[in-house]
Amino acid sequence: MSLATKYNPEETESKWYAYWMENGFFNSKIDHSREPYTIVIPPPNVTGVLHMGHMLNNTIQDVLIRKARMEGKNACWVPGTDHASIATEAKVVAMLKDRGIDKKSLTRDEFLAYAWEWREKYGGIILEQLKKLGASCDWDRTKFTMDDDMILAVTNVFVDLYNKGKIYRGIRMVNWDPQGKTALSDDEVITKEIASKLYFIKYQIEGKENEYLTIATTRPETIMADVAICINPNDGRFAHLKGKKAIIPLINRAIPIIEDEYVDMDFGTGCLKVTPAHDVNDYELGLKHKLEVIDILNDDGTLNAKAEILVGEDRFIARKKISKMLEKIQQLEKTEEYTSNVGHSERTDAVIEPRLSLQWFLKMEDITKPALRAVMEDVIQLYPPKFKNMYRSWMENVRDWCISRQLWWGHRIPAYFLPNGEFVVAKNEGEALKIAQERYDEAYTINDLTQEDDVLDTWFSAWLWPISVFDTKIFESGEKNEDLKYYYPTNDLVTAPEILFFWVARMIISGYEYMGEKPFRNVYLTGIVRDKQGRKMSKSLGNSPDPLELIRNFGADGVRTGMLFSSPAGNDLPFDEKLVEQGRNFSNKIWNAFRLVQGWEIDSTLSGESNQASINWFENRFQEALTEIEDHFSKFRISDALMSTYKLVWDDFCSWYLEMIKPAYQHPIDQFTYDKTIGFFEEVLKILHPFMPFITEELWHQIKDRPATEALIISSWPRPTTFDAQIIAEAIQVFEVVSQVRNVRASKGLSPKEPLFLNIKTEKPEIYARFDQVLKKLANISEISFGQPADSGISFLVKSDECFVPITGQIDIEEEKQNILKELEYTKGFLETVNKKLGNERFVQGAPTQVVETEKKKQADAEAKIKALEEALVKLQ
């Protein structure tokens, strides 16, 4: 069957994905005769649709899982989605608003019914989109972080940690999101540099009509929450104010002037207004000096009755109004432009408010220690390792984790409040009642219990992911099921650096807490996909292409390879549509290469002896490339593995090998060479498959009809063997001669069809003799001779060999001299650089022997080339 002239990705992709699914190639079941290879997907939010970061992340996971599957491992890639409390609740609230429904008018159960309706409609979209990319997940294992068994697992973990004394409830300063109306952990706050103003406000000294203390602040809207003014005891400027009071402008409340060395005498005016309810550092200062706490903000960031003025106004509108009010009473001395670091909610982008709040916390000091050791001692390896220091810094300075969120969508905290003001923690109402009766009063009934309204931080379920996707009952029974025993620990985790602490570190913590060992062996941290200007892709900037549109236009294989062409671990990917265009062109190159081979007529009576050198070369070159590819994979250099594969296929196989063995026009090829070529094509398709699964499966079945048991997706990955580096080096030398002859033709306007005579002055004529047929065919050479070149014609150098092409007619001697002089100048400069390196004693003694030997080889080659160029120049005098 002849192949279509043009590759049709859309038709091919839908056909083969259905085929893989129908034959269960993605499914994994326990098989103790095989080594498991396991990846758990970073569960995308149910609110999400496929974006460029997902594309990169899941392509890398699919490459790893497909390669492992072909290596004979029991490959298991577990998919799933995250309930994403804050983001999903916001989506549901917006949906209700469109329907004219206010969340406040609903009961919790009514709201949750709408939330589940939303999840059923939109929650699985992203997983379906991943199938378009070719993701070979075991879809039968798909999990959702709010599946019934997952809810039970999270509940049991909370109860267990509470009973161990690791979870507590208390009033602490937290990060408050006024838009989401919930507390956030430190990791959910993104700091941005914001241009703002510094307001210099005059506080009158009590009893002194004309004496003021000026204080610089970026937040004049919080002056109504001031409870003190602090000066440094070593600051002589304010010594006379010790023990006195100052009057807050606009509300005329007197507050004490206190002393503390915490105050920076050189910042602003050297005085600090103390607002414990609205600043983390002020809160600590307030505790130290036993100061009152006045919270003037509502949950949504508007001023409450304690503010006394502008009640109900938004905090930022209040800032502007208070500035004008202070100016009117002449107590705003001046304003200055100022740049400050401001925390923003990772989910809603609202400016964070530090706020005192009664929340639930997980103690982190002790529970993190095994997780820190695991990474520092490389039990778990981060790729690239540069993230180790960042990880250590976070783990050594971690604060208690605020795990409660003021939302309805999520895992409800299993705490039950009693009429006596106490609470009990239990996995359900029945157990809670039993504890309450035993601990407090036997007369209590179910009606006396009121469950905590708050839900748990989304990451509190996600941190159990590598365990809970296989076994949820372990958190209650302590006994591992067979799946967990077989698949845990998982092998590789592929994720983004920005959730190294949100998720990765916490999974490691829970792994050691509940399994006593690591949850995965390696963590591959991808970069951020950015546009050509270096900006992070986002909907608001409109700089992110639609991934599904890219797949439609360039094919999934083209997009996959395009994404990987320039995405080294941990470094950002500057995305350009030309990358996926290059990927599509690669698909077309492979397609056309097979069309070429498929079109050859075979004559079994012909000998393949003339192609033996070409076949030997490619066999060795393939093994060399395969060794490189395996090395790249072992070091998680996925982009480099693809580039090595790309060069092997495009350059070596398509551009050189197929041209070397291609029969003359309308002539047949011998059976031996054809069979070898088909064998090479099959090996090439195997190493391409993890990167380009669709086109490779298509061509695999075009080569011959195969049953499902012989599908490419489950074929054997090639095993590297030894290779002859000398044969490869000799071929490269011959290819260089071919390229130079072609350049001579192009520069002199000679017809590529006109055979040329070639004379080579070399000490190793056997190299050219071995590749005699290749050289003559590819460079269109009529005859090759060895010896002293003649005195007229065109000469060029390959390594230390001088090659000469005699040309009839006039040659521009001066032009040839200039060309040689330019090359001579360049080579001398190159030699000088190499000599400096070899003259550096520290380099010679410190560098690996192989590196030093490579430099010495460069030195010898450059010296030989200079000598040959100088001799060529003499001939032209």
Distance between the termini: 62 Å
Mean pLDDT: 91
The largest β sheet comes out as: 7 strands, mixed
Radius of gyration from CA coordinates? 36 Å
The CATH topology of the domain at 547-723: Isoleucyl-tRNA Synthetase, Domain 1
Query: What is the H level of CATH, i.e. the homologous superfamily of the domain at 547-723?
Result: Isoleucyl-tRNA Synthetase, Domain 1
Q: Which bin fits the share of residues in helices? A: 40-55%
What gross morphology would you assign? globular
pLDDT < 50 stretches: none
What amount of the residues lies in strands?
A: 15-25%
Short description:
This protein is 44% helix and 17% strand. By secondary structure, it is α/β, with parallel strands linked by helices. Among the domains are: 165-178 and 355-461, Methionyl-trna Synthetase, domain 2; 189-349, Valyl/Leucyl/Isoleucyl-tRNA synthetase, editing domain (Isoleucyl-tRNA Synthetase, domain 2, Alpha-Beta Complex); 547-723, Isoleucyl-tRNA Synthetase, Domain 1 (Orthogonal Bundle); 812-877, Helix Hairpins, CATH 1.10.287.
